[in-house]
Batch of 3 targets.
Target 1
Amino acid sequence: QEAYALYLQARSLHYRGTHADNQQGIRYLERALELDPTYAPAWFGLADALVYDYGMSGGSYQDVHARARAAAETAVRLDPKLSDAHLAMGRVLGELEWNWAAADVEFKRTLELDPNNVLALWCASGYALIGDRLDEALQLIQAAAARDAVGWGISQGTGDVQFRRGRLPEAESAYRKAIELSPTSALIHFWLGVVLLARGEPAAALAAMEEETDEGFRLYGLALAFGTLGRLSDADRALAALETKYADGMAVNIASVYADRKQLDRAFAWLDRAFRQRDGQLPVIKAYRGIENL
């Protein structure tokens, strides 16, 4: 019972969508597994939280990969018919190992075991975006939304899909809905700001970026918005802070700023670094501003 309670508390923290909450959730899961090492859902939760946190905040790839891979494998071994266990393995294969074909197999198995697995539908939608399967991505996120009308992540995922499809009004509406549902969750204000930049509203974009709760993405967003507004000294300060504090976890974002400025040699240098570091954001780079300049 106590392990189950810790698992539920950990997932609640995870879905708040901030680095600090997710780290606390990971500690809860570790405690749950100390109490019951055979509890497969907690192994899934640990793998899922580790992968999510790495994609958002970076860290040591070797450490995260080893821990997440072991947790996913343990979940599958303990309960091979647990849909979430295959979801965890799919995320490890795709987001950490960049083995898209193997990840697709695991996601297919996940949804065979539970067609109503909302998190799996949301993740599969994101993977379809990585593969430029935009219609499939929309169908999957709509299926997730039909099963979960209150999850802010589903609204954010809808915004992600509509943004990649070039449907900027729909993307803005979805991100604003996500903010209504969870105003403190990370990255939503940032992505709203990106949409507003794309709509030619840099002042509104700056206001959105200033509300971003994740410091790294706030600095990234400020560098983009200030640059678009022509406030170059402010943009330079934000970029310098981003490079100083987040070079090991946000190389893709730094590359994006340089690409937006059309400083292409610097952009490619940072992309090389992102690849060496196995930056968790590299697979979704097509959504980032300035990349079209490359």
Note: The mean pLDDT is 95.
Target 2
Amino acid sequence: MTRLRLDIAYDGTDFSGWARQPDQRTVQETLELAIATVLRLDALPQLTVAGRTDAGVHATGQVAHVDLAEPVDPDLLVRRLAGVVPPDLVVTSVSLAPDGFDARFAASGRHYRYRVADRAVDPLRRNDTLSWKRPLDVAAMRRAGQGLLGEHNFAAYCKPREGATTVRTLRSLTVSRDAASVVVVEMHADAFCHNQVRSMVGALLAVGDGRRPPEWPAAVLAAGVRDSAVTVAPPHGLTLVAVDYPPD
């Protein structure tokens, strides 16, 4: 068997998330069909991904691996895939995976970015930027984010899944304005549980527009239970930008 690493980017607007679902357009099935087509496989290959993204969530640095029975030229596969995948999906590179590589279980960190505009949204960025009607206090959001750093049980910000832990280590959380004055929230953790990033962004937005004090997100975290006052931010502002792996 030959294991290949695929680096992938996609606009999640018209996808029902990464994972294959019956009668839904998903990134996984679209890419598996493309690989089967260009390699003339009798059955769909099985992709393993670093992190399953929800419907509407984008990626510029998604990583997956696939096991193939026959050797494949990685550069040739990239060129062939470019001719069959839809325009909202790109395989940016393919490489032979080092020994022991697993796109999901070898990953040591994930980086996400969330974009919010508290003024008119650039129409060219409407698919990856949330429009917010109230002015946002970036300094207050930044202070609130510091209370979430470190290793915690993030059950208050996660959609529970049976048998899955909600303990995560949030390594960094930054809030800034870019050159276009868009508020950019960036988070880096060993991993994120379901809805964690969007829930934390929702809490930060409540602080940013003055509805809650900067200490509130940390208090929600300490309570350890879902708080109905925490709104899950819409998916289209979120992008998976990178996945960390140990050296080869």
Note: The mean pLDDT is 96.
Target 3
Amino acid sequence: MPSPLNILVAYPYLKQDSINYLREFNSKYPNTLCFFLDSGAFTAFNSGKTITLDEYCDFIKSLPFEPWRYILLDAIGNEVKTKENYIEMIDRGFNPVPVFTHGSDWADVDYYYDKSDFICYGGLVGKKGSSEVINDIDKFMKYTKGRKAHLLGYTSLRYLKKFKPYSCDSSSWLAGRRYGQMMIYMGNGKTKTIGKKDIISNPDAKVKDRLKLMGFDLEKIKQNSGWKGGASELSKVSTASWISLSLDMEKNIGTKLFLACGSAFDIKMVCDAYLKLNGLKPCQE
């Protein structure tokens, strides 16, 4: 079987249709999905909503498949409450991945590693170019001393190659759909971003070869319909490219790159692209 597909979904986005689809995927293709469940605390905080610990724990217990891991229900901006939630989840028989937040007391790193083999480093979203954050990631990675760590919402390829965390995640794979730019994975950790005009004006041989390798028809991509909507060829190529990059990163530098999905459509898009890359039939045809 191929290397597993790494996807991350936050609890607020995981509706019944997605759960049913993922259950079918797991049943049809065992051991090919590495599903990381995020509590969605950051998502809820930004929307002014609240997720209770009872609600989150009940949801985890109700899942018809076992997540690879699930993240603690952290309290944004409240390290004390975050620790209380962690202890409470442990007392209830759960084994969540704890979250150390950027700007917190560094002693918290040791506190969580005393209890867990794996921790998340949060508070990095939207700060990938900040020298302060880069310096803190450097400090954090040195502090972990090779122990398993996940960088939440961080996929700066330049620094991932430098720091080599155990895992990371991002929704950057959706950028092509948003901005009309196609990201093509060229292999060996290198990517190329091109626009519609570049495709129409006869792209270079390496781009053509890469598209063919991933199973895409260049003439179909050139059509107007190939650049519009979530199910466009642009979206499919970019998604397949991010998956290829993810698989290569795990193989070559040991970092699991999770594609963060925010809807049932996104989940199916990623899973279908993975199956196509590996010559497997899609679920729910």
Note: The beta strands are 5-10, 33-38, 69-70, 99-101, 118-122, 148-151, 167-170, 182-187, 190-194, 256-261.
